[in-house]
């Protein structure tokens, strides 16, 4: 019997985010203090989560959210949706090969496991000493040295979790397993064991025994690791929901030792690239005053070389937010100095692949020749380090429709020279893309507005079906180069700049903690406003959601969709910051679950119209290869077969020519020789006509398989593309 599959879309998002598989242990209830002792002191990775609490009616933030009557009703509907049915696969049955990877049994297992406190950790045995110069640890031997274990406090749900495990993995584990071995994914052997209220699933010989010894306190656990303990003090919250640990130094040391003499070469490359500077990563999630707080500390010892070159950028300052309207509901800012970036990459090439330094310098010179400007003399001095993205409702922004990207300008004169040259290259590129056969044109237009020049791309003709109109626009002010998807956004912003109105710097000082941290990245999202806007659209998509659920064999009642009034009161502001500290990087996010939910919701809405969008793309592809477009007829009136007509090759855009010349040089300069063999050849040269033909045949084969899947499921087939 085949399990009922659930397509990866809005249903999984609903289950994973609201059903408990999103942020583990939120809101947190009890933790098991023995978990940190179950994991060995030298564990390479560790994840722990608390049991989920019931929340508190009327409380602020996440506690009140999960206790709201509408959310409780939604969670109950999810439980009913995941309940095992006759359509679910009983233990021991097989799954169709063509079935989608997520099904209701696996989701039910994930929900049950994450509802209780648990942990998952991995560790490795000390690598054996190599016996000779060519003695390298084989993949099979390396896998035998790795161990992983899942420990869950099942409580009264032990039988339900074992049943869900059997259904999801197609096994027949007894109700109270005692060291039962079962096949796992890809034929991996797993051991299942139950001791009291704890259920353990282990991989590797002796893993369960070592975990049981740790739970009894027989040996030092992860809590005795001083590096973990020091990092955990930095990120721990009042009410801990989850914690994570990655020992990057331990993992790289074990890999280097297992490689034998070849490990010395790998160690040299890691040091040159600065990867060895990342000692460990410690993360924790908790609840503070109703807000979900997620903190991560990356220990680097204060190094800023190699891959950590961006850590040397100047910290963001409050005055660099003054051009942003104070009412903006979405703000992103990062510090990135172009000159420092290119010079840092050059230093990295010199350390890791010295022979490619000449290739890198050649690529730089060719880029300067194509651009017609000097990077050091013209480009770098023109711009500052602050890059910002913002959307202001008072300027007309709705769902990010008026989003503006701004790059800080240091020297307006040099910035004007750079912008003029870029606009010239863009104009040349657009002129080469015009297609007379389709009647489509694209040109760069210029207008003056309030003393500023605005350049934008105007397109006409050549489109059919529903399209979203965009006119990429550019403008230079005394302080910034602005980019937007349409000139109206820039005009609104210029009007804002001409009037004395408050800027975002005051908000940034408080909500982004700009005053007391060396921030390299900062993000802000007005949670209440974003939730109000998006949740107001949900009822209008109820019928579409219901149809999609039924097509996957799931009954969905649109009445359980929460109202806007059930969501907005608990939606706090979303903030994210990356700060430089003397010995590492500190990342802090507030209410990240809201940002994740909003992004997933937007992605789900997009997926609703993916079929129609793919149909339009297919119509355009067929139209481009139609007989009429290929050409018929000859001067003497004789009909010439379309296949015999070879249309003139279009002129390559300027931007494409630059990318085609510079990209191979950069790849050869930056990528070590041993890694270049893994890069596709087309990265260094354009694909041949034979390769393009193979891709087209593969695309047609995939499309035919898709139609066959739709026929088997009894779903309507997409209509054929419209004729020209």
Number of spatially distinct domains: 3
Coarse structural class: alpha+beta
- Fraction in beta strands: 15-25%
* DSSP helix fraction: 25-40%
- CA distance, first residue to last residue: 46 Å
Reported for the largest beta sheet, the result is: 19 strands, antiparallel
Q: What is the typical, i.e. mean, pLDDT? A: 79
* Shape label: globular
What's the helix count? 25
Query: How big is the Rg?
Result: 29 Å
Strand element count: 19
Unreliable stretches, pLDDT < 50, 5 or more residues?
Answer: 1-22, 94-102, 627-650
Describe the structure.
The protein is an alpha+beta fold and 724 residues long. The chain has three domains: 10-294 and 529-611, no CATH class; 316-516, no CATH class; 693-719. Helices cover 39% and strands 19% of the residues. The protein has a 19-stranded antiparallel beta sheet, with helices on both faces. It is globular. The model is unreliable at 1-22, 94-102 and 627-650 (pLDDT under 50).
């Amino acid at each position: 019997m085949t399990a009922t599959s659930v397509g990866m879309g809005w249903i999984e998002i609903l289950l994973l985010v609201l059903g408990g598989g999103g942020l583990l242990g939120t809101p947190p209830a009890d933790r098991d203090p023995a978990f940190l002792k179950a994991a060995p002191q030298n564990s390479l990775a560790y994840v722990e989560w608390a049991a989920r609490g019931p929340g508190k009616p009327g409380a602020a933030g996440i506690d009140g959210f999960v206790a709201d009557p509408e959310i409780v009703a939604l969670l109950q509907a999810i439980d009913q949706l995941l309940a095992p049915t006759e359509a679910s696969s009983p233990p021991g049955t097989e799954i169709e090969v063509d079935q989608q990877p997520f099904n209701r049994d696996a989701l039910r297992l994930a929900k049950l496991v994450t509802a209780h406190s648990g942990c998952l950790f991995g560790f490795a045995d000390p690598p054996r000493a190599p016996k000779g110069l060519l003695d390298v640890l084989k993949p099979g031997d390396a896998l035998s040295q790795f161990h992983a274990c899942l420990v869950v406090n099942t409580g009264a749900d032990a039988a339900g979790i074992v049943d869900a495990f059997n259904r999801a993995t197609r096994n027949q584990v007894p109700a109270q397993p005692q060291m039962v071995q079962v096949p796992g994914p890809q034929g991996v052997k797993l051991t299942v064991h139950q001791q009291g209220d704890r259920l353990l699933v282990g991989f590797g010989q002796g893993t369960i025994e070592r975990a049981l010894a740790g739970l009894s306190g027989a040996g030092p656990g992860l809590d005795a690791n001083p590096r973990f303990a020091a990092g955990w003090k930095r990120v721990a919250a009042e009410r801990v929901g989850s914690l994570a640990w990655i020992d990057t130094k331990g993992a790289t040391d074990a890999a280097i030792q297992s490689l034998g003499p070849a490990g010395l070469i790998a160690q040299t490359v890691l040091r040159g690239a600065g990867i060895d500077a990342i000692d460990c990563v410690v993360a924790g999630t908790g609840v503070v005053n109703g807000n979900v707080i997620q903190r991560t500390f990356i220990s680097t010892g204060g190094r800023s070389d190699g891959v950590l070159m961006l850590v040397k950028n100047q910290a963001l300052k409050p005055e660099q937010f003054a051009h942003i309207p104070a009412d903006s509901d979405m703000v992103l800012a990062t510090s990135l100095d172009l000159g420092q970036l290119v010079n840092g990459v050059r230093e990295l090439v010199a350390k890791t692949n010295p022979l490619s330094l000449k290739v890198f310098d050649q690529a730089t010179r060719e880029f300067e020749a194509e651009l017609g400007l000097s990077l050091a003399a013209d480009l770098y001095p023109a711009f500052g380090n602050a890059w910002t993205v913002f959307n202001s409702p008072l300027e007309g922004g709705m769902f990010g429709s008026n989003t503006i990207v701004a790059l800080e300008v240091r020297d307006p004169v040099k910035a004007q020279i750079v912008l003029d040259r870029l606009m010239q290259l863009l104009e040349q590129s657009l002129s080469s893309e015009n297609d007379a056969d389709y009647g489509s044109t694209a040109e760069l237009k210029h207008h003056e507005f309030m003393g500023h020049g605005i350049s934008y791309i105007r397109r006409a003709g050549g489109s059919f079906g529903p399209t979203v109109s965009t006119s990429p626009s550019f403008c230079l002010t005394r302080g910034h180069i602005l980019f937007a998807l349409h000139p109206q956004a820039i005009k609104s912003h210029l009007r804002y700049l001409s009037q004395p109105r408050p800027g975002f710097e005051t908000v940034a000082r408080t909500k982004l903690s700009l005053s007391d941290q060396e921030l390299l990245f900062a993000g802000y999202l007005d949670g209440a406003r974003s939730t109000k806007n998006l949740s107001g659209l949900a009822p209008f998509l109820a019928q579409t959601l219901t149809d999609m659920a039924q097509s996957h064999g799931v009954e969905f009642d649109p009445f359980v969709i929460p109202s806007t009034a059930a969501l907005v009161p608990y939606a706090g502001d979303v903030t994210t910051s990356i700060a430089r500290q003397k010995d590492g990087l500190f990342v802090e996010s507030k209410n990240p679950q809201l940002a994740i939910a909003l992004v997933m919701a937007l992605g789900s809405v997009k997926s609703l119209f993916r079929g129609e969008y793919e149909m339009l793309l297919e119509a355009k592809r067929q139209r481009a290869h139609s007989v009429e477009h290929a050409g018929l007829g000859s001067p003497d009136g004789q009909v010439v077969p379309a296949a015999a007509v070879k249309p003139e090759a279009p002129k390559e855009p300027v931007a494409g020519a630059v990318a085609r010349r510079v990209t191979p040089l950069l790849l050869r300069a930056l990528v070590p020789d041993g890694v270049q063999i893994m890069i596709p050849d087309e990265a260094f040269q354009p694909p041949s006509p034979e390769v393009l033909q193979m891709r087209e045949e593969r695309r047609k084969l995939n499309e035919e398989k898709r139609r066959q899947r739709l026929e088997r499921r009894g779903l309507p087939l997409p209509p054929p593309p419209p004729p020209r």
